[in-house]
Amino acid sequence: MNVAVLSGGVGGARFLRGVVAVIGSDNVSIVGNVADDIEVLGLRVSPDLDSILYTLAGLADEERGWGRAGETWQALETVAQLGGESWFRLGDRDIGLHLVRTELLRSRVPLSEATERLAHALGLGARLLPATDDPLRTFVETPEGTFPFQTWFVARGHRDEVDAVHYAGSPDATAAPGVLEALGAADVILIAPSNPYVSIGPILAVDEIREALERRTVPCVAVSPLIGGRAVKGPADRMLLRIAGGTSPAHVASCYAGLIDALVIDEADVPADAPVRLVVTRTLMTDLEAARRLAAAALDAAGAPA
Amino acid sequence: MNVAVLSGGVGGARFLRGVVAVIGSDNVSIVGNVADDIEVLGLRVSPDLDSILYTLAGLADEERGWGRAGETWQALETVAQLGGESWFRLGDRDIGLHLVRTELLRSRVPLSEATERLAHALGLGARLLPATDDPLRTFVETPEGTFPFQTWFVARGHRDEVDAVHYAGSPDATAAPGVLEALGAADVILIAPSNPYVSIGPILAVDEIREALERRTVPCVAVSPLIGGRAVKGPADRMLLRIAGGTSPAHVASCYAGLIDALVIDEADVPADAPVRLVVTRTLMTDLEAARRLAAAALDAAGAPA
Hints:
Oligomer: homodimer
Shape of chain A: globular
Helix content of chain A: 25-40%
Largest sheet of chain A: 7 strands, parallel
CATH topology of chain A: Rossmann fold
Number of helices of chain A: 12
CATH architecture of chain A: 3-Layer(aba) Sandwich
Order of helices and strands of chain A: EHEEEHHHHEEEHEHEHHEEEHHEEH
Strand content of chain A: 15-25%
Distance between the termini of chain A: 10 Å
Protein backbone atom coordinates (compact mmCIF):
# COMPACT_ATOMS: atom_id res chain seq x y z
CA MET A 1 0.00 0.00 0.00
CA ASN A 2 1.34 3.41 -0.98
CA VAL A 3 0.59 6.32 1.29
CA ALA A 4 1.25 9.97 0.50
CA VAL A 5 1.22 12.45 3.35
CA LEU A 6 1.04 16.22 3.15
CA SER A 7 2.95 17.56 6.11
CA GLY A 8 4.23 20.61 7.90
CA GLY A 9 6.97 20.54 10.53
CA VAL A 10 7.04 19.29 14.10
CA GLY A 11 3.48 17.93 14.51
CA GLY A 12 3.52 16.53 11.01
CA ALA A 13 6.87 14.88 11.65
CA ARG A 14 5.56 13.13 14.76
CA PHE A 15 2.55 11.91 12.83
CA LEU A 16 4.81 10.65 10.06
CA ARG A 17 6.75 8.63 12.57
CA GLY A 18 3.46 7.00 13.46
CA VAL A 19 2.63 6.33 9.81
CA VAL A 20 6.02 4.72 9.29
CA ALA A 21 5.52 2.67 12.45
CA VAL A 22 2.27 1.33 11.04
CA ILE A 23 3.12 0.57 7.42
CA GLY A 24 6.90 0.77 7.24
CA SER A 25 8.84 3.51 5.51
CA ASP A 26 9.26 2.10 2.02
CA ASN A 27 5.81 2.99 0.77
CA VAL A 28 5.50 6.39 2.38
CA SER A 29 5.93 9.54 0.31
CA ILE A 30 5.88 12.85 2.11
CA VAL A 31 5.03 16.14 0.48
CA GLY A 32 6.57 18.74 2.75
CA ASN A 33 5.90 22.42 3.18
CA VAL A 34 8.66 24.75 2.01
CA ALA A 35 6.91 28.11 2.28
CA ASP A 36 8.44 28.62 5.75
CA ASP A 37 11.90 28.36 4.26
CA ILE A 38 14.17 31.24 5.01
CA GLU A 39 17.57 32.49 4.03
CA VAL A 40 19.34 33.52 7.20
CA LEU A 41 23.06 34.21 7.58
CA GLY A 42 23.32 33.19 3.95
CA LEU A 43 22.03 29.74 4.81
CA ARG A 44 18.96 28.23 3.20
CA VAL A 45 16.90 26.82 6.03
CA SER A 46 13.93 24.51 5.40
CA PRO A 47 12.47 24.14 8.89
CA ASP A 48 9.62 21.79 8.01
CA LEU A 49 11.66 19.46 5.82
CA ASP A 50 14.34 19.40 8.51
CA SER A 51 11.90 18.62 11.30
CA ILE A 52 10.77 15.66 9.24
CA LEU A 53 14.33 14.60 8.40
CA TYR A 54 15.48 14.80 11.99
CA THR A 55 12.40 13.09 13.40
CA LEU A 56 12.34 10.19 10.96
CA ALA A 57 16.11 9.74 11.27
CA GLY A 58 15.76 9.57 15.05
CA LEU A 59 17.88 12.68 15.48
CA ALA A 60 15.24 15.06 16.78
CA ASP A 61 15.31 16.61 20.24
CA GLU A 62 12.11 15.19 21.69
CA GLU A 63 12.23 17.33 24.79
CA ARG A 64 12.75 20.71 23.15
CA GLY A 65 10.32 19.72 20.43
CA TRP A 66 12.38 20.99 17.51
CA GLY A 67 15.90 20.74 16.15
CA ARG A 68 18.44 18.04 16.81
CA ALA A 69 19.25 16.14 19.95
CA GLY A 70 22.71 16.82 21.38
CA GLU A 71 22.62 20.19 19.71
CA THR A 72 25.07 22.96 20.66
CA TRP A 73 24.90 26.67 19.92
CA GLN A 74 28.47 27.80 19.61
CA ALA A 75 28.24 29.24 16.11
CA LEU A 76 25.13 31.26 16.86
CA GLU A 77 26.60 32.53 20.13
CA THR A 78 29.59 33.73 18.18
CA VAL A 79 27.33 35.32 15.59
CA ALA A 80 25.51 37.18 18.37
CA GLN A 81 28.78 38.25 19.96
CA LEU A 82 29.91 39.64 16.62
CA GLY A 83 26.71 41.54 16.04
CA GLY A 84 25.36 39.22 13.35
CA GLU A 85 21.79 38.11 12.79
CA SER A 86 21.01 35.72 15.63
CA TRP A 87 17.22 35.86 16.06
CA PHE A 88 16.65 32.63 14.16
CA ARG A 89 17.77 29.75 16.38
CA LEU A 90 20.27 27.63 14.48
CA GLY A 91 22.24 24.96 16.30
CA ASP A 92 25.69 23.82 15.25
CA ARG A 93 24.56 20.46 13.90
CA ASP A 94 21.65 22.12 12.17
CA ILE A 95 24.03 24.62 10.59
CA GLY A 96 26.07 21.72 9.23
CA LEU A 97 23.03 20.52 7.31
CA HIS A 98 22.20 24.03 6.11
CA LEU A 99 25.74 24.52 4.85
CA VAL A 100 25.48 21.37 2.78
CA ARG A 101 22.04 22.19 1.42
CA THR A 102 22.97 25.78 0.65
CA GLU A 103 26.05 24.67 -1.27
CA LEU A 104 23.97 22.21 -3.29
CA LEU A 105 21.38 24.87 -4.13
CA ARG A 106 24.12 27.35 -5.00
CA SER A 107 25.52 24.83 -7.46
CA ARG A 108 22.03 24.69 -9.02
CA VAL A 109 20.92 21.37 -7.58
CA PRO A 110 17.14 21.70 -7.11
CA LEU A 111 15.77 21.55 -3.56
CA SER A 112 14.05 18.25 -4.30
CA GLU A 113 17.33 16.61 -5.26
CA ALA A 114 19.20 18.24 -2.37
CA THR A 115 16.52 16.93 -0.01
CA GLU A 116 16.78 13.46 -1.49
CA ARG A 117 20.54 13.46 -0.94
CA LEU A 118 20.19 14.62 2.65
CA ALA A 119 17.47 12.05 3.32
CA HIS A 120 19.61 9.33 1.81
CA ALA A 121 22.64 10.35 3.88
CA LEU A 122 20.49 10.22 7.02
CA GLY A 123 19.17 6.79 6.11
CA LEU A 124 15.54 7.78 5.64
CA GLY A 125 13.40 5.05 4.18
CA ALA A 126 10.41 7.27 3.46
CA ARG A 127 10.56 9.52 0.44
CA LEU A 128 10.66 13.20 1.41
CA LEU A 129 9.61 15.59 -1.33
CA PRO A 130 9.38 19.35 -1.06
CA ALA A 131 6.03 20.49 -2.42
CA THR A 132 7.84 22.61 -4.99
CA ASP A 133 11.33 23.55 -6.11
CA ASP A 134 10.06 27.01 -6.99
CA PRO A 135 10.20 30.00 -4.66
CA LEU A 136 7.03 29.89 -2.57
CA ARG A 137 6.81 31.92 0.61
CA THR A 138 4.09 32.41 3.17
CA PHE A 139 3.21 35.97 4.20
CA VAL A 140 0.78 36.81 6.95
CA GLU A 141 -1.38 39.91 7.01
CA THR A 142 -1.82 41.28 10.49
CA PRO A 143 -3.12 44.53 11.98
CA GLU A 144 0.55 45.48 12.38
CA GLY A 145 1.36 44.89 8.74
CA THR A 146 2.24 42.07 6.40
CA PHE A 147 5.21 39.95 7.42
CA PRO A 148 7.22 37.08 5.96
CA PHE A 149 6.29 33.95 7.89
CA GLN A 150 9.43 33.59 9.99
CA THR A 151 9.52 37.28 10.86
CA TRP A 152 6.03 36.92 12.27
CA PHE A 153 6.49 33.47 13.74
CA VAL A 154 9.94 33.69 15.28
CA ALA A 155 11.02 37.31 15.47
CA ARG A 156 7.58 38.62 16.54
CA GLY A 157 6.67 35.45 18.47
CA HIS A 158 3.46 35.03 16.39
CA ARG A 159 1.72 37.48 18.70
CA ASP A 160 0.03 39.48 15.94
CA GLU A 161 -3.40 38.22 14.99
CA VAL A 162 -3.57 37.02 11.41
CA ASP A 163 -6.25 38.37 9.09
CA ALA A 164 -5.13 36.54 5.99
CA VAL A 165 -2.35 34.39 4.65
CA HIS A 166 -0.93 34.46 1.18
CA TYR A 167 1.64 32.47 -0.62
CA ALA A 168 4.03 34.54 -2.70
CA GLY A 169 5.08 32.69 -5.81
CA SER A 170 2.15 30.27 -5.83
CA PRO A 171 0.81 31.17 -9.29
CA ASP A 172 4.10 30.10 -10.85
CA ALA A 173 4.96 27.24 -8.52
CA THR A 174 4.82 23.77 -9.98
CA ALA A 175 4.99 20.53 -8.05
CA ALA A 176 8.51 19.28 -7.44
CA PRO A 177 9.59 16.17 -9.36
CA GLY A 178 8.00 13.10 -7.82
CA VAL A 179 5.14 14.86 -6.06
CA LEU A 180 2.41 14.30 -8.63
CA GLU A 181 3.69 10.77 -9.22
CA ALA A 182 3.53 10.05 -5.49
CA LEU A 183 -0.01 11.44 -5.22
CA GLY A 184 -1.01 9.51 -8.35
CA ALA A 185 0.42 6.24 -7.04
CA ALA A 186 -1.00 6.62 -3.53
CA ASP A 187 -3.68 4.25 -2.28
CA VAL A 188 -4.34 6.66 0.54
CA ILE A 189 -3.60 10.35 0.93
CA LEU A 190 -3.24 11.76 4.41
CA ILE A 191 -3.00 15.33 5.62
CA ALA A 192 -0.93 15.49 8.79
CA PRO A 193 -2.11 17.38 11.89
CA SER A 194 -0.32 20.55 10.81
CA ASN A 195 -1.45 24.15 10.67
CA PRO A 196 -3.96 24.39 7.78
CA TYR A 197 -2.93 27.94 6.90
CA VAL A 198 0.82 28.03 7.17
CA SER A 199 1.81 24.37 6.80
CA ILE A 200 -0.72 22.62 4.57
CA GLY A 201 -2.07 25.76 2.91
CA PRO A 202 1.13 26.53 1.00
CA ILE A 203 1.31 22.95 -0.28
CA LEU A 204 -2.24 23.24 -1.59
CA ALA A 205 -1.38 26.64 -3.05
CA VAL A 206 0.58 24.78 -5.69
CA ASP A 207 -2.18 24.41 -8.27
CA GLU A 208 -0.94 21.07 -9.59
CA ILE A 209 -1.04 19.58 -6.09
CA ARG A 210 -4.49 20.96 -5.28
CA GLU A 211 -5.78 19.67 -8.61
CA ALA A 212 -4.26 16.25 -7.95
CA LEU A 213 -6.19 16.11 -4.67
CA GLU A 214 -9.38 17.32 -6.33
CA ARG A 215 -9.05 14.64 -9.02
CA ARG A 216 -8.08 11.87 -6.60
CA THR A 217 -9.79 8.50 -6.88
CA VAL A 218 -8.47 7.33 -3.51
CA PRO A 219 -9.53 8.37 -0.02
CA CYS A 220 -7.97 11.47 1.49
CA VAL A 221 -8.08 11.85 5.26
CA ALA A 222 -6.91 14.84 7.27
CA VAL A 223 -6.01 14.86 10.93
CA SER A 224 -7.08 17.94 12.82
CA PRO A 225 -4.24 19.77 14.59
CA LEU A 226 -6.66 20.95 17.29
CA ILE A 227 -7.57 19.26 20.56
CA GLY A 228 -10.63 20.67 22.25
CA GLY A 229 -10.44 23.58 19.84
CA ARG A 230 -6.90 24.41 20.97
CA ALA A 231 -3.63 24.02 19.18
CA VAL A 232 -1.18 21.71 20.92
CA LYS A 233 1.45 24.28 20.08
CA GLY A 234 1.55 27.32 17.86
CA PRO A 235 -1.09 29.67 16.54
CA ALA A 236 -3.40 27.34 14.56
CA ASP A 237 -6.35 27.87 16.91
CA ARG A 238 -6.10 31.66 16.87
CA MET A 239 -5.78 31.66 13.11
CA LEU A 240 -8.81 29.42 12.64
CA LEU A 241 -10.86 31.53 15.01
CA ARG A 242 -10.06 34.74 13.19
CA ILE A 243 -9.89 33.55 9.59
CA ALA A 244 -12.40 30.68 9.52
CA GLY A 245 -14.61 32.02 12.29
CA GLY A 246 -14.19 29.16 14.74
CA THR A 247 -12.21 26.15 15.88
CA SER A 248 -14.74 23.36 15.54
CA PRO A 249 -14.10 20.31 13.37
CA ALA A 250 -16.34 21.94 10.76
CA HIS A 251 -14.04 24.94 10.66
CA VAL A 252 -10.98 22.73 10.30
CA ALA A 253 -12.69 20.72 7.57
CA SER A 254 -13.57 23.92 5.73
CA CYS A 255 -9.86 24.51 5.16
CA TYR A 256 -9.80 21.33 3.08
CA ALA A 257 -13.19 21.68 1.38
CA GLY A 258 -13.49 19.33 -1.56
CA LEU A 259 -10.13 17.76 -0.80
CA ILE A 260 -10.81 15.30 2.03
CA ASP A 261 -13.21 12.47 2.69
CA ALA A 262 -12.80 12.33 6.45
CA LEU A 263 -11.34 14.34 9.28
CA VAL A 264 -9.80 12.67 12.30
CA ILE A 265 -10.51 14.69 15.43
CA ASP A 266 -9.82 14.36 19.11
CA GLU A 267 -12.26 13.02 21.68
CA ALA A 268 -12.25 16.47 23.24
CA ASP A 269 -13.75 18.04 20.14
CA VAL A 270 -17.51 18.04 19.94
CA PRO A 271 -18.35 16.07 16.81
CA ALA A 272 -20.67 18.73 15.48
CA ASP A 273 -21.91 18.75 11.95
CA ALA A 274 -19.15 18.84 9.41
CA PRO A 275 -19.13 18.55 5.63
CA VAL A 276 -17.05 15.39 5.87
CA ARG A 277 -17.09 12.24 7.93
CA LEU A 278 -15.58 12.76 11.38
CA VAL A 279 -13.54 10.07 13.03
CA VAL A 280 -13.01 10.49 16.74
CA THR A 281 -9.90 9.24 18.50
CA ARG A 282 -7.15 10.49 20.77
CA THR A 283 -4.90 12.74 18.73
CA LEU A 284 -2.30 13.94 21.23
CA MET A 285 0.98 12.34 20.18
CA THR A 286 2.64 12.00 23.56
CA ASP A 287 4.96 9.28 22.34
CA LEU A 288 5.63 7.02 19.39
CA GLU A 289 2.88 4.61 20.39
CA ALA A 290 0.35 7.44 20.49
CA ALA A 291 1.54 8.61 17.07
CA ARG A 292 1.26 5.06 15.76
CA ARG A 293 -2.30 4.77 17.05
CA LEU A 294 -3.25 8.08 15.47
CA ALA A 295 -1.74 7.05 12.15
CA ALA A 296 -3.57 3.75 12.31
CA ALA A 297 -6.84 5.60 12.99
CA ALA A 298 -6.25 7.87 10.01
CA LEU A 299 -5.43 4.95 7.75
CA ASP A 300 -8.44 3.10 9.06
CA ALA A 301 -10.61 6.13 8.34
CA ALA A 302 -9.36 5.91 4.78
CA GLY A 303 -10.52 2.33 4.65
CA ALA A 304 -6.98 1.05 4.50
CA PRO A 305 -6.03 -2.18 6.24
CA ALA A 306 -3.92 -1.11 9.22
CA MET B 1 55.37 55.48 18.63
CA ASN B 2 53.41 53.98 15.75
CA VAL B 3 54.32 50.50 14.63
CA ALA B 4 53.07 48.78 11.50
CA VAL B 5 53.50 45.03 11.23
CA LEU B 6 53.16 42.89 8.13
CA SER B 7 51.92 39.52 9.28
CA GLY B 8 50.77 36.08 8.27
CA GLY B 9 48.78 33.75 10.51
CA VAL B 10 49.75 31.75 13.56
CA GLY B 11 53.45 32.70 14.00
CA GLY B 12 52.70 36.27 13.07
CA ALA B 13 49.83 36.40 15.53
CA ARG B 14 52.06 35.23 18.37
CA PHE B 15 54.62 37.85 17.46
CA LEU B 16 51.92 40.50 17.39
CA ARG B 17 50.89 39.57 20.88
CA GLY B 18 54.48 40.29 21.86
CA VAL B 19 54.45 43.63 20.07
CA VAL B 20 51.26 44.62 21.84
CA ALA B 21 52.76 43.49 25.15
CA VAL B 22 55.70 45.83 24.56
CA ILE B 23 54.09 48.99 23.26
CA GLY B 24 50.39 48.53 23.93
CA SER B 25 47.78 47.98 21.28
CA ASP B 26 46.67 51.50 20.45
CA ASN B 27 49.57 52.34 18.19
CA VAL B 28 49.87 49.01 16.41
CA SER B 29 48.59 48.62 12.87
CA ILE B 30 48.67 45.17 11.34
CA VAL B 31 48.71 44.52 7.62
CA GLY B 32 47.47 40.96 7.30
CA ASN B 33 47.76 38.43 4.52
CA VAL B 34 44.55 37.57 2.70
CA ALA B 35 45.91 35.48 -0.17
CA ASP B 36 45.23 32.29 1.82
CA ASP B 37 41.56 33.19 2.00
CA ILE B 38 39.22 30.56 0.76
CA GLU B 39 35.55 30.11 0.05
CA VAL B 40 34.51 26.80 1.52
CA LEU B 41 30.94 25.62 2.11
CA GLY B 42 29.92 29.04 0.87
CA LEU B 43 31.80 30.67 3.75
CA ARG B 44 34.52 33.24 3.22
CA VAL B 45 37.37 32.16 5.46
CA SER B 46 40.36 34.43 6.15
CA PRO B 47 42.66 32.12 8.11
CA ASP B 48 45.46 34.62 8.72
CA LEU B 49 43.24 37.51 9.77
CA ASP B 50 41.33 35.12 12.02
CA SER B 51 44.47 33.74 13.67
CA ILE B 52 45.39 37.33 14.49
CA LEU B 53 41.88 38.18 15.69
CA TYR B 54 41.64 35.13 17.90
CA THR B 55 45.15 35.48 19.29
CA LEU B 56 44.95 39.16 20.11
CA ALA B 57 41.46 38.76 21.56
CA GLY B 58 42.75 35.97 23.81
CA LEU B 59 40.45 33.45 22.17
CA ALA B 60 43.02 31.29 20.42
CA ASP B 61 43.63 27.65 21.23
CA GLU B 62 47.22 27.77 22.40
CA GLU B 63 47.62 24.03 22.56
CA ARG B 64 46.32 23.14 19.12
CA GLY B 65 48.10 26.17 17.71
CA TRP B 66 45.25 27.40 15.54
CA GLY B 67 41.58 28.19 15.80
CA ARG B 68 39.60 29.03 18.89
CA ALA B 69 39.82 27.68 22.41
CA GLY B 70 36.80 25.69 23.56
CA GLU B 71 36.02 24.92 19.95
CA THR B 72 33.60 22.18 18.95
CA TRP B 73 33.12 20.49 15.59
CA GLN B 74 29.47 19.58 15.41
CA ALA B 75 28.65 21.45 12.22
CA LEU B 76 31.59 19.98 10.32
CA GLU B 77 30.84 16.49 11.59
CA THR B 78 27.33 16.91 10.26
CA VAL B 79 28.67 18.19 6.96
CA ALA B 80 30.89 15.12 6.68
CA GLN B 81 28.01 12.82 7.58
CA LEU B 82 25.91 14.43 4.85
CA GLY B 83 28.63 14.08 2.23
CA GLY B 84 29.55 17.77 2.15
CA GLU B 85 32.99 19.33 1.80
CA SER B 86 34.74 18.68 5.12
CA TRP B 87 38.46 18.74 4.32
CA PHE B 88 38.92 22.28 5.60
CA ARG B 89 38.74 22.21 9.39
CA LEU B 90 36.12 24.68 10.56
CA GLY B 91 35.00 24.68 14.17
CA ASP B 92 31.55 25.77 15.29
CA ARG B 93 32.72 29.04 16.83
CA ASP B 94 34.89 29.70 13.83
CA ILE B 95 31.91 29.10 11.55
CA GLY B 96 29.97 31.70 13.54
CA LEU B 97 32.55 34.30 12.59
CA HIS B 98 32.64 33.17 8.96
CA LEU B 99 28.86 33.40 8.73
CA VAL B 100 28.97 37.01 9.91
CA ARG B 101 31.85 37.98 7.63
CA THR B 102 30.33 36.23 4.63
CA GLU B 103 27.04 38.03 5.14
CA LEU B 104 28.83 41.39 5.36
CA LEU B 105 30.79 40.70 2.17
CA ARG B 106 27.64 39.51 0.43
CA SER B 107 26.00 42.81 1.30
CA ARG B 108 28.98 44.53 -0.36
CA VAL B 109 30.80 45.60 2.78
CA PRO B 110 34.52 45.49 1.87
CA LEU B 111 36.73 42.99 3.71
CA SER B 112 38.60 45.83 5.43
CA GLU B 113 35.40 47.19 6.94
CA ALA B 114 34.12 43.71 7.81
CA THR B 115 37.43 43.00 9.54
CA GLU B 116 37.24 46.27 11.44
CA ARG B 117 33.75 45.39 12.67
CA LEU B 118 34.83 41.92 13.78
CA ALA B 119 37.92 43.32 15.48
CA HIS B 120 35.82 45.92 17.25
CA ALA B 121 33.30 43.32 18.40
CA LEU B 122 36.15 41.21 19.81
CA GLY B 123 37.61 44.22 21.61
CA LEU B 124 40.85 44.40 19.68
CA GLY B 125 42.91 47.49 20.42
CA ALA B 126 45.32 47.04 17.56
CA ARG B 127 44.16 47.96 14.09
CA LEU B 128 43.87 44.94 11.82
CA LEU B 129 43.92 45.72 8.12
CA PRO B 130 43.75 43.20 5.31
CA ALA B 131 46.50 43.96 2.81
CA THR B 132 43.88 44.43 0.13
CA ASP B 133 40.14 44.29 -0.41
CA ASP B 134 40.73 43.00 -3.92
CA PRO B 135 40.80 39.32 -4.87
CA LEU B 136 44.38 38.14 -4.33
CA ARG B 137 45.12 34.44 -4.11
CA THR B 138 48.32 32.47 -3.69
CA PHE B 139 48.98 29.60 -6.07
CA VAL B 140 51.92 27.23 -5.73
CA GLU B 141 53.63 25.55 -8.62
CA THR B 142 54.75 22.05 -7.78
CA PRO B 143 55.99 19.05 -9.75
CA GLU B 144 52.45 17.70 -9.36
CA GLY B 145 50.82 20.78 -10.81
CA THR B 146 49.74 24.24 -9.78
CA PHE B 147 47.39 24.40 -6.81
CA PRO B 148 45.44 27.05 -4.93
CA PHE B 149 47.18 27.60 -1.61
CA GLN B 150 44.74 25.81 0.66
CA THR B 151 44.42 22.84 -1.68
CA TRP B 152 48.17 22.39 -1.43
CA PHE B 153 48.50 23.33 2.22
CA VAL B 154 45.53 21.57 3.78
CA ALA B 155 44.10 19.06 1.35
CA ARG B 156 47.52 17.86 0.10
CA GLY B 157 49.24 18.42 3.45
CA HIS B 158 51.88 20.69 1.79
CA ARG B 159 53.82 17.60 0.84
CA ASP B 160 54.54 18.71 -2.75
CA GLU B 161 57.76 20.65 -3.17
CA VAL B 162 57.17 24.19 -4.36
CA ASP B 163 59.02 25.48 -7.40
CA ALA B 164 57.40 28.88 -7.51
CA VAL B 165 54.65 30.91 -5.94
CA HIS B 166 52.43 33.38 -7.66
CA TYR B 167 49.74 35.69 -6.54
CA ALA B 168 46.68 35.74 -8.77
CA GLY B 169 45.14 39.17 -8.87
CA SER B 170 48.23 41.04 -7.73
CA PRO B 171 48.56 43.35 -10.76
CA ASP B 172 45.13 44.81 -10.03
CA ALA B 173 45.23 44.66 -6.25
CA THR B 174 45.42 47.95 -4.42
CA ALA B 175 46.12 48.43 -0.75
CA ALA B 176 43.03 48.30 1.44
CA PRO B 177 41.87 51.57 3.00
CA GLY B 178 44.16 52.49 5.88
CA VAL B 179 47.14 50.38 4.84
CA LEU B 180 49.20 53.06 3.12
CA GLU B 181 48.25 55.54 5.83
CA ALA B 182 49.40 53.10 8.51
CA LEU B 183 52.70 52.48 6.74
CA GLY B 184 53.15 56.21 6.18
CA ALA B 185 52.46 57.04 9.80
CA ALA B 186 54.64 54.25 11.20
CA ASP B 187 57.81 55.07 13.12
CA VAL B 188 58.85 51.47 12.72
CA ILE B 189 57.78 48.81 10.27
CA LEU B 190 58.13 45.17 11.28
CA ILE B 191 57.76 42.01 9.28
CA ALA B 192 56.53 39.19 11.49
CA PRO B 193 58.21 35.75 11.54
CA SER B 194 55.85 34.43 8.89
CA ASN B 195 56.47 32.45 5.73
CA PRO B 196 58.15 34.85 3.26
CA TYR B 197 56.52 33.21 0.24
CA VAL B 198 52.98 32.48 1.24
CA SER B 199 52.36 34.90 4.11
CA ILE B 200 54.45 38.03 3.56
CA GLY B 201 54.98 37.55 -0.17
CA PRO B 202 51.34 38.17 -1.09
CA ILE B 203 51.27 41.36 0.99
CA LEU B 204 54.33 42.62 -0.87
CA ALA B 205 52.75 41.55 -4.16
CA VAL B 206 50.42 44.50 -3.76
CA ASP B 207 52.48 47.09 -5.64
CA GLU B 208 51.37 50.01 -3.51
CA ILE B 209 52.51 48.24 -0.36
CA ARG B 210 55.86 47.17 -1.78
CA GLU B 211 56.44 50.72 -3.05
CA ALA B 212 55.54 52.13 0.37
CA LEU B 213 58.22 49.91 1.91
CA GLU B 214 60.74 50.85 -0.77
CA ARG B 215 60.07 54.53 -0.16
CA ARG B 216 60.06 54.25 3.62
CA THR B 217 62.03 56.76 5.66
CA VAL B 218 61.73 54.71 8.84
CA PRO B 219 63.46 51.48 9.80
CA CYS B 220 62.00 48.21 8.66
CA VAL B 221 62.99 45.06 10.52
CA ALA B 222 62.00 41.51 9.64
CA VAL B 223 62.04 38.55 11.99
CA SER B 224 63.16 35.29 10.42
CA PRO B 225 60.64 32.45 10.71
CA LEU B 226 63.49 29.90 10.78
CA ILE B 227 65.38 28.53 13.77
CA GLY B 228 68.57 26.72 12.90
CA GLY B 229 67.45 26.78 9.30
CA ARG B 230 64.23 24.96 10.16
CA ALA B 231 60.68 26.18 10.23
CA VAL B 232 59.03 25.95 13.64
CA LYS B 233 55.99 24.70 11.80
CA GLY B 234 54.99 24.53 8.17
CA PRO B 235 56.92 24.44 4.94
CA ALA B 236 58.94 27.70 5.03
CA ASP B 237 62.29 25.91 5.24
CA ARG B 238 61.58 23.56 2.36
CA MET B 239 60.34 26.43 0.24
CA LEU B 240 63.41 28.56 0.96
CA LEU B 241 65.71 25.67 0.20
CA ARG B 242 64.12 24.99 -3.14
CA ILE B 243 63.20 28.50 -4.27
CA ALA B 244 65.95 30.66 -2.70
CA GLY B 245 68.60 27.94 -2.66
CA GLY B 246 69.13 27.75 1.08
CA THR B 247 67.85 28.48 4.55
CA SER B 248 70.55 30.79 5.90
CA PRO B 249 69.76 34.28 7.17
CA ALA B 250 71.08 35.57 3.84
CA HIS B 251 68.48 33.50 2.02
CA VAL B 252 65.73 34.78 4.27
CA ALA B 253 66.95 38.36 3.84
CA SER B 254 66.96 37.91 0.06
CA CYS B 255 63.19 37.53 0.19
CA TYR B 256 62.99 41.10 1.47
CA ALA B 257 65.78 42.62 -0.65
CA GLY B 258 65.61 46.39 -0.56
CA LEU B 259 62.77 46.37 1.90
CA ILE B 260 64.41 45.76 5.29
CA ASP B 261 67.22 47.29 7.28
CA ALA B 262 67.76 44.43 9.67
CA LEU B 263 66.82 40.80 10.12
CA VAL B 264 66.27 39.29 13.54
CA ILE B 265 67.50 35.70 13.61
CA ASP B 266 67.76 32.97 16.17
CA GLU B 267 70.89 32.11 18.09
CA ALA B 268 70.87 28.77 16.33
CA ASP B 269 71.38 30.39 12.95
CA VAL B 270 74.94 31.00 11.91
CA PRO B 271 75.21 34.74 11.43
CA ALA B 272 76.79 34.42 8.03
CA ASP B 273 77.11 37.33 5.66
CA ALA B 274 73.84 38.88 4.77
CA PRO B 275 72.93 42.00 2.82
CA VAL B 276 71.35 43.50 5.93
CA ARG B 277 72.27 43.85 9.55
CA LEU B 278 71.59 40.68 11.51
CA VAL B 279 70.36 40.79 15.07
CA VAL B 280 70.71 37.59 17.02
CA THR B 281 68.30 36.62 19.78
CA ARG B 282 66.09 33.75 20.78
CA THR B 283 63.14 33.67 18.41
CA LEU B 284 61.09 30.67 19.58
CA MET B 285 57.88 32.07 21.00
CA THR B 286 57.15 29.45 23.64
CA ASP B 287 54.94 31.81 25.61
CA LEU B 288 53.84 35.42 25.82
CA GLU B 289 57.02 36.46 27.59
CA ALA B 290 59.15 34.94 24.84
CA ALA B 291 57.02 36.72 22.24
CA ARG B 292 57.39 39.96 24.17
CA ARG B 293 61.18 39.60 24.27
CA LEU B 294 61.30 38.87 20.56
CA ALA B 295 59.14 41.89 19.79
CA ALA B 296 61.35 44.04 22.00
CA ALA B 297 64.43 42.78 20.17
CA ALA B 298 62.86 43.60 16.81
CA LEU B 299 61.85 47.07 17.96
CA ASP B 300 65.30 47.57 19.43
CA ALA B 301 66.85 46.52 16.12
CA ALA B 302 64.80 49.26 14.53
CA GLY B 303 66.31 51.72 16.97
CA ALA B 304 63.02 52.20 18.72
CA PRO B 305 62.91 52.75 22.46
CA ALA B 306 61.50 49.50 23.85
